Amino acid sequence: MSYDIEIGRSKRARRTYSLDDIALVPARRTRDPRDVSTDWQIDAFTFPTPIVGAPMDSVMSPASAIELGRLGGLGVLNLEGLWTRYEDPQPYLDEISLLPGDDMPRVTSRMQEIYAEPIKAELITARLAEIREAGVVVAGSLTPQRTQEFSRAVVNAGVDLFVIRGTTVSAEHVSQNQEPLDLKEFIYELDVPVIVGGAAGYTPALHLMRTGAAGVLVGFGGGATSTTRRALGIHAAMASAISDVAAARRDYLDESGGRYVHVIADGGLGVSGDMVKAMAMGADAVMIGAPLARATDAPGRGYHWGPEAHHHEYPRGARTQMSQVGTLETVLNGPSNHVDGTSNLVGALRRAMATTGYSTLKEFQRSEVVITQRS
Amino acid sequence: MSYDIEIGRSKRARRTYSLDDIALVPARRTRDPRDVSTDWQIDAFTFPTPIVGAPMDSVMSPASAIELGRLGGLGVLNLEGLWTRYEDPQPYLDEISLLPGDDMPRVTSRMQEIYAEPIKAELITARLAEIREAGVVVAGSLTPQRTQEFSRAVVNAGVDLFVIRGTTVSAEHVSQNQEPLDLKEFIYELDVPVIVGGAAGYTPALHLMRTGAAGVLVGFGGGATSTTRRALGIHAAMASAISDVAAARRDYLDESGGRYVHVIADGGLGVSGDMVKAMAMGADAVMIGAPLARATDAPGRGYHWGPEAHHHEYPRGARTQMSQVGTLETVLNGPSNHVDGTSNLVGALRRAMATTGYSTLKEFQRSEVVITQRS
Amino acid sequence: MSYDIEIGRSKRARRTYSLDDIALVPARRTRDPRDVSTDWQIDAFTFPTPIVGAPMDSVMSPASAIELGRLGGLGVLNLEGLWTRYEDPQPYLDEISLLPGDDMPRVTSRMQEIYAEPIKAELITARLAEIREAGVVVAGSLTPQRTQEFSRAVVNAGVDLFVIRGTTVSAEHVSQNQEPLDLKEFIYELDVPVIVGGAAGYTPALHLMRTGAAGVLVGFGGGATSTTRRALGIHAAMASAISDVAAARRDYLDESGGRYVHVIADGGLGVSGDMVKAMAMGADAVMIGAPLARATDAPGRGYHWGPEAHHHEYPRGARTQMSQVGTLETVLNGPSNHVDGTSNLVGALRRAMATTGYSTLKEFQRSEVVITQRS
Amino acid sequence: MSYDIEIGRSKRARRTYSLDDIALVPARRTRDPRDVSTDWQIDAFTFPTPIVGAPMDSVMSPASAIELGRLGGLGVLNLEGLWTRYEDPQPYLDEISLLPGDDMPRVTSRMQEIYAEPIKAELITARLAEIREAGVVVAGSLTPQRTQEFSRAVVNAGVDLFVIRGTTVSAEHVSQNQEPLDLKEFIYELDVPVIVGGAAGYTPALHLMRTGAAGVLVGFGGGATSTTRRALGIHAAMASAISDVAAARRDYLDESGGRYVHVIADGGLGVSGDMVKAMAMGADAVMIGAPLARATDAPGRGYHWGPEAHHHEYPRGARTQMSQVGTLETVLNGPSNHVDGTSNLVGALRRAMATTGYSTLKEFQRSEVVITQRS
């Protein structure tokens, strides 16, 4: 990695690239889209659709996690969201979708109040049980701060994949106030595979891989619902971040003598082309929120928000209105009568793979990309 | 070619340039525009106007193909469009132009329905015969998927130039479902010259040249009517793509001991300046749609759409409204009272050649260009 | 420093970067925000909040300077503003906030009239005394042109820190018309520490450091209230400027055998992310105007203007309307229900330091930054 | 000059920079603006204001050329404009300013009609005589196409400086239809100094210098009234163009044993900052149109257009509405109550020179500039 640009006499930097800065290019060979496989295999599970539903209340309810599972993907329920705070969260989901859009501070304040309700361990158990009964892969997420408190409830409820997700999660969190989560020990003792992140660089990701995680989420508040760059000055351009973490996967594979840790791009994937590019940069799967929030049957009812939007101390996101394009099934598999990359996500991936001549996702990671001006 | 930019630790890329990123610069010598020749010669045909009308229903009907031929260019009829599906396509052209613009999904759906009507071989014959009777060069296009089914009808109808055009056409298409078109064999057996594409890189174009094609279309869904970049993540910046394919022409010329394959820029050429730049990057001719759709006598009646717009599975383009600037003759040859590059396309090319001191298109390909910020 | 870019055959240049062009990236380690110190120590003074209120009438009155001091920062009163021209400036502050926004030339003219009132030495004494009585650190600013005339009044009034601030202040001002201020002699004779600027490059800053200044302001009319770039063609991209001046600090530290001159970023810091980035580029503290003008208790009452806006000869800024986000305390320390980097500035800095794993501002200057497309 | 960027496999290019891409930076020394000289000396003439009024009917009438001369600059009358076509052009100027702005083709057509009126040699004589009687330096311009026809009338009328100005003027114009103007012979035989252009590169400018021209206009249709880039694909980024032509001046100075040919930036200088940057890139003076069209006493009465706007064959510009900022004197010398670089042009230049420490324009050409993102 070359820090080849001099910003000033005392600081050098590298240039990073977002998905908007790159594009795939057609290759010598093309392929029939029907011959292409989009299978994603992690641990004991195989998903025909390499799409993970982001643990956000506007996107994943128990019902929509089940539906996503039936459609071949993986739904992750936010275990610190409304479904584990309220016996019946529907009135609050309704209220959030009805808060007046022209008074953002009021929206933020009200969301902070709604999310101040404590999390109940028994609701965690109940929600995950509901998903399990539907016969799909069960996954739930906690933040690192809450993992120690609630992980037992999660594991006892019978989760298949456990997700630890925060804005930034490092393998080495330092605090003088509370004993931080020892990820390595935690994962070692847990009997389910863990996906952890966000991480947005080679070294942080490598350290997370060494904790024993089955997958690493690549991202840092770059999604549609976050204003992290403006507020904190921190930003991880997604194309560069995925490539860096994919390099960590490769190096860790060697270092560990063969442990393949999955790289899951998380954040900023707004349309099907973004998802395609994330895969081409080295992602094994994508965790998406906004594209799923456009489903007519999404819990957000045309609105989308992330956990940052109602952070009690430092809210950074916003509740965003989304255009609706069809059912979750239409969003994933079409048929599409929208031409802007918002529906038939899997069809788009399949077609992009066919056009560039690849038949598996692992091969597709080798795609040639170019840097090109944003249109 | 240097993949000199590190996007991340596991991926390198080259930077590519669109026509908007470049400009010609005046040279030491200027020339009288009247001394400039814009002749384009391919196979046995010489066209005073190096403009090929794109096979799109909004641009090329039999009548407008004839008119373009009379004006010195080459009209290519889309043999999978309305004119070969319907005995009288006019009511459908009218209907498309009247579909309400504020409901894009409905426009897309209705176009999908209209284009679901089967193609009739006898209409292919009739339409091409109509063009032939007018005494201009006859050209029609099919997609690779339909070429085997209808090519006999086309050749029997007496076509002068045959165009095989898809979003991406490779010389090596792989399918387990149907026997793909063997381009090399097909072209070898055909007794008319074939223009084939789109191709958007050195290697894909070189392979197409080796099939025996007389010309290669350079492009990949970059036109005004396509949202390919957003939906599929695939994009070929036009200036780089033309230069790459021109390099393939040069290398194939050597490899083949003298076969000159024409490079025809296809897509994203919205105004006369784009056409000029495409020539300067190495194109022998340009295939254009949008500029011709601005003619008052264009079939699209102020609207423009490509085949992607009504793709039955994965529509990606949109029916776009175009400002109208005058007859096809005015668009090509002026007199111009529009100052924005939408009329007098040939006059603009002539003037640009004169200003940079070149007298033939082949010489003009050597023009110096610079990279400059978009304005 | 490499002047590696050829603009043309007779001029080379370096590329410079603004804060919008860069971003911080998360690192291997994260830290508890509560363990982070934002202390800034200059001369005998320690400020828990490394924020200096810009000497602008819309931002700093005696009352708001006192309030900022109480909140841990440093307020600097403009000693050439309304508070030292008028016994009671409130009617004029009111009038400026009520001037009709659709007639900018009239606003400029009226402000020129209001600021034509002479400065009174006794008002300088009175205003500084008022601040001193409140028990906070006392600071006032003059332009280089007025420093000789009024500096005695300032020092006699008992100022703790003296600020000499102009658009550009050099250590070597040449004039045939009036004896310029000899900064080195002036600072040597004064018995209070002096902060001086703006400077926007390595060499100008190094020369200012050699005058004995305790701090250097980095900037050149880059703030929200200035149109210097458009009118004068002069611009100092802030990220590069801070890094250059930080390099001067490092080199002067060696050259002087250990004198540490503080680098204070001044101008163009509109949101908390900008402040974070300025620190990461090497600033010891930030002087801000616009973010403080968004306080409901700011003297500008929702408007913001700098001294350039009413320059008698060459006005360059404009009175700008600002959205209001809460009290000065809310702007600095939250609680925030605004998600756009306009409130809880100190919280944002603390969180950014924690996320990148640093516990002091001095360490935080080593942060890794990347160059990334503007969003 | 390094053609270091590969656009594609068959074309390399250099990157060029417009004035918007660069900025001056403050230096170690500052200077009192009153000590700065903006004198420009060409041939026997010294102009306190290095501003040449562009020969455009919206900017230069005999009266405004005289006024500009009185204010220290040089007015150039367009000898192919309305003042030499009509005994009383005022009705036509009035009409142009009243043509409805929402029907651009009609505006263009009507202007083409108005400018179809033949040029009268006797009106050339009369207009130049009127300027001469006012006691200011007399200058008029012709296009290369008309120079042979009318140059005698011009010289006999007693012009001090003769301007030959076209979009692109080369020293080597080739035509099979008419004997082109032999610039070298023409200038040699003429007894007045000639300024000629536009030229936009090192080689074209060097060749123009070798014809014996006293000055070269740098530009190619980059002004506010031209759409050359869009229509012809030709563009000369102004910062690079000026630097290249300044290099030709330097090299020709050596080659000729001491003949200093003036470099006059012409086009795209919309605000005072642009003028400042043009000087810093190496221009000796600037020819401006748009900034003067903003004068309340400009002939265009709030509108601005160039000769391209009514070209009989290939119109490329547009009649553009301009905000008005004050009299010509205010535009040049202030007092300014506009803060956007549209008034007090000379004051801005003076202040920029003072801030960067230079006292003459020739020294100012050495200014350090940086490349910076457009704001």
Automatic annotation (TrEMBL), chains A, B, C, D:
User: Which CDD domains does the entry mention?
Assistant: IMPDH
Query: What are this entry's molecular-function GO terms?
Result: IMP dehydrogenase activity
Q: Does the keyword Oxidoreductase apply?
A: yes
Q: Which Gene3D superfamilies match?
A: Aldolase class I
Q: Which domain of life is it from?
A: Bacteria
Record keywords: Transmembrane included?
Answer: no
Show the Pfam families listed in the entry. IMPDH
Give the GO biological process terms: GTP biosynthetic process
Residue span(s) of domain IMP dehydrogenase/GMP reductase: 17-366
Keywords, alphabetical: NAD, Oxidoreductase
Family statement drawn from the similarity comment of this UniProt entry: Belongs to the IMPDH/GMPR family.
Q: What is this protein called?
A: GuaB3 family IMP dehydrogenase-related protein
Which species does the entry assign this protein to? Rothia santali
